[in-house]
Design a protein that fits this description.
The complex is a heterodimer of chains A (110) and B (112).
Chain A: E1 5-7, E2 10-13, E3 19-24, E4 31-38, E5 42-50, E6 53-57, E7 64-68, E8 74-78, E9 87-95, E10 98-101, E11 105-109
Parallel strand pairs in A: 2-11
Antiparallel strand pairs in A: 1-3, 3-8, 4-5, 4-9, 5-6, 7-8, 9-10, 9-11
Chain B: E1 4-6, E2 11-14, E3 19-25, E4 30-38, E5 45-50, E6 54-58, E7 61-66, E8 71-76, E9 85-93, E10 101-102, E11 106-111
Parallel strand pairs in B: 2-11
Antiparallel strand pairs in B: 1-3, 3-8, 4-5, 4-9, 6-7, 7-8, 9-10, 9-11
The chains are: A mainly beta (110), B mainly beta (112).
């Protein structure tokens, strides 16, 4: 069974630009969560989607948004990028209480 | 104060040692506790999860939860160089929400 896949794996953007990250969950998983990982703050929850509806949201500004499609694939968008948005963005799909992470997208904002 | 505190390490141990990794938390509503392992340039992988106080064993790994002290531990017996990774604790309030709160991770290096 294929794991969680994320594209692209690496991105370099400049301040003020926007970016869209993509996540394909494990087949059959309907829940997708997004996390930001930085050395100082660790893994921080962004939001969770289930059956195309946002169910939970972390404490991030409105520049961070997401959506989920009918096939459970999810995208995350960050608008007006700031230097502090440089991080590893992880997507996780869940079935029951077990959450499985993808390899992440490394975003660098210059 | 963060909801979940974890010593960042790094922790260096010789091969074969018993490793103890710990997290403390402040939210008494947390009911579901997890340990993840993350190798460099990879996403975290789930090692163990538990709902209850006490010990849960899986091979060389033992997860321990003490809800009265708001303290969880992961023990690794007979540690191997392949165990070198960052270990993340995570927890959530159950039931109802899957907003997992993670510790910042402890870097472990097992020396051959």
């Amino acid at each position: 069974k294929a794991g969680v896949t994320q594209t692209p794996r690496y991105l370099i953007k400049t301040r003020g630009q926007q970016v869209t990250l993509s996540c394909s969950p494990i087949s059959g998983h309907r829940s997708v969560s997004w996390y930001q990982q930085t050395p100082g703050q660790g893994l921080q929850f962004l939001f969770e989607y289930f059956s195309e509806t946002q169910r939970n949201k972390g404490n991030f500004p409105g520049r961070f948004s997401g959506r989920q499609f009918s096939n459970s694939r999810s995208e995350m968008n960050v608008s007006t990028l700031e230097l502090g948005d440089s991080a590893l963005y992880l997507c996780a799909s869940r079935v029951g209480d077990e959450q499985f992470f993808g390899p992440g997208t490394r975003l660098t904002v210059l | 104060q963060k909801e979940v505190e974890q010593d960042p390490g790094p922790l260096s141990v010789p091969e074969g040692a018993i490793v103890s990794l710990n997290c403390t938390y402040s939210n008494s509503a947390f009911q579901y506790f997890m340990w993840y392992r993350q190798y460099s340039r990879k996403g975290p992988e789930l090692l163990m999860y538990t709902y209850s106080s006490g010990n849960k064993e899986d091979g060389r790994f033992t997860a321990q939860v003490d809800k009265s002290s708001k303290y969880i531990s992961l023990f690794i017996r007979d540690s191997q160089p392949s165990d070198s990774a960052t270990y993340l604790c995570a927890m959530s309030v159950m039931p109802g929400t899957y907003k997992y709160i993670f510790g910042t991770g402890t870097r472990l290096k097992v020396l051959a």
